[in-house]
């Protein structure tokens, strides 16, 4: 049965307020850059659609896929910016408006040379629940992608009851299910959630899981994450996490029923793990070569970054996911799919506005063909 949409992208929606830091002054340490009393001159402020539906959805549209975006916005000025932005992008969407809370927004501090810092106001995402999800649109789609549970209160309350219920309902539709995450703030309500238990109950209903390295370790093995975080030195935590631990946790996730796991590791590249993917090919519009995808372990190194062209890392993970999901929908082999993810993540670093500036699918393919990176296949 032919589907109306390639993917329905649902979840946390916001507007990013991005100060324009000077590109020619790379930062080596946020502690030195953001000093009390220091004046930092910026080149303006960009208002950019953010969150999973705009970031991943619009990138997938740029990559040639028919997408439908679903989320919740407020009846306020920022909500008008979000709706107008999606309308201008020419994408199908159902952004439900609520008067109960304002539209979510984030102030993204992303000076060149360091990872970004978010000042986040979740707004109406705190009341976004199953009643706001367009299941009719999902039924018409090949793939359902959702994010970010730690910022969506209704989906982590009661040990993630709505999260598990939602994925269970979508799985019954014969639609491929995909999940993205965000780091729980330890100082917020979501930081008190038993995330290992929530994921153990939810992941059996998830086909594709695409967390970042930090998200994977913090949510699945919080004790190990805390121990790694406390290690001395100025090294980024991404570099402190041992690859063996990532593989160990990854295999545990595959054991829970996830068919494909993509771990986004920033400048370390990406790790892909898979189990038996035969059940995916029983779903409408999916045709993966099982002998190439079954029980794989692939480490893909990052492509070289031209720091002189780097603008910021906002949305890099979501763009990488968009490319990976597009490759899966296209029936690419796992080696190629993970390369698309890593290349798209790299290319997004050069974009002030990802939706306008990211290359199309053919351009990504050409860059992959021309540029070299390290690819290790363990299984």
TrEMBL record:
> What UniProt keywords are attached to this protein's entry?
Kinase, Transferase
Residue ranges of the Carbohydrate kinase PfkB domain?
34-348
Q: Which Pfam families match?
A: PfkB
An annotated Gene Ontology molecular function: kinase activity
Record keyword Transmembrane helix present: no
**InterPro entries associated with the record:** PfkB_Carbo_kinase, PfkB_dom, Ribokinase-like
Cited PANTHER family? CARBOHYDRATE KINASE PFKB DOMAIN-CONTAINING PROTEIN (PTHR43085:SF57), HEXOKINASE FAMILY MEMBER (PTHR43085)
Name of the protein this chain belongs to: Carbohydrate kinase family protein
């Amino acid at each position: 049965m032919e589907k109306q949409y390639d993917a329905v992208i649902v979840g946390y929606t916001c507007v990013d307020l991005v100060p324009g830091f000077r590109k020619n002054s790379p930062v080596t340490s946020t502690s030195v850059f953001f000093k009390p009393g220091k004046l930092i001159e910026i080149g303006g402020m960009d208002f950019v659609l953010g969150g999973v539906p705009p970031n991943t959805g619009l990138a997938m549209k740029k990559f040639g896929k028919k997408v439908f975006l679903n989320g919740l916005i407020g009846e306020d000025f920022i909500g008008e910016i979000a709706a107008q932005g999606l309308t201008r992008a020419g994408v199908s969407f159902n952004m439900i408006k609520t008067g109960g809370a304002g539209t979510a927004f984030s102030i993204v501090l992303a000076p060149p040379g360091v990872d970004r810092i978010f000042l986040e106001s979740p707004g109406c995402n705190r009341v976004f629940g199953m009643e706001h999800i367009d299941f009719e649109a999902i039924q018409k789609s090949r793939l359902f992608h959702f994010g970010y549970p730690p910022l969506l209160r209704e989906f982590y309350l009661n040990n993630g009851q709505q999260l598990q219920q939602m994925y269970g309902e979508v799985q019954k539709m014969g639609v491929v299910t995909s999940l993205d995450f965000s780091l729980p703030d330890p100082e917020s309500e979501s930081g008190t959630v038993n995330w290992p238990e929530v994921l153990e109950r939810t992941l059996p209903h998830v086909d594709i899981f695409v967390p970042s390295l930090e998200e994977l370790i913090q949510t699945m093995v919080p004790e190990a994450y805390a121990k790694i975080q406390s290690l001395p030195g100025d090294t980024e935590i991404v570099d402190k996490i041992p690859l063996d631990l990532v593989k160990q946790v990854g295999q545990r996730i595959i054991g829970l029923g996830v068919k494909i796991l993509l771990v986004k590791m920033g400048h370390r590249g990406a790790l892909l793990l898979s189990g038996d993917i035969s059940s995916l090919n029983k779903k409408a519009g999916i045709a993966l070569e099982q002998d190439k995808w079954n029980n794989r372990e692939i480490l893909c190194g990052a492509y070289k970054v031209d720091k002189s062209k780097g603008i910021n890392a906002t949305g890099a993970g979501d763009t990488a996911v968009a490319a990976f999901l597009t490759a899966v929908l296209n029936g690419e082999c796992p080696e190629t799919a993970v390369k698309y993810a890593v290349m798209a993540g790299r290319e997004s670093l050069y974009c002030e506005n990802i939706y306008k500036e990211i290359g199309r699918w053919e351009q990504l393919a050409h860059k992959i063909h021309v540029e070299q990176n390290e690819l290790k296949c363990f299984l």
